[in-house]
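USER: Write out one fold?

ASSISTANT:
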Amino acid sequence: MSDCHQTVGSGCYVDMVNGNIHISGVVGGVRAESVNGKIETRNLGGSVRLSTVNGRISPSFDTVVSVTEIDLDSVNGTI
């Protein structure tokens, strides 16, 4: 499992194989890629790009005002 918790203005990039990704509170942009694992996010801002193969993507946004782009991609998994 990989966790990413950062402050406003920071960015986050996570690449995981055979594990889950949990990201929260990142406002500077997020890119997460997973193979055989789920991606769960909350309270994100900036550019959000989430991609998985054989996994679920569960994004949660309190507001999309600070989100500049949302790109969600899944092969053989739910969003």
Remarks:
- Residues 42 and 60 are 5 Å apart (CA to CA).
- The radius of gyration is 11 Å.
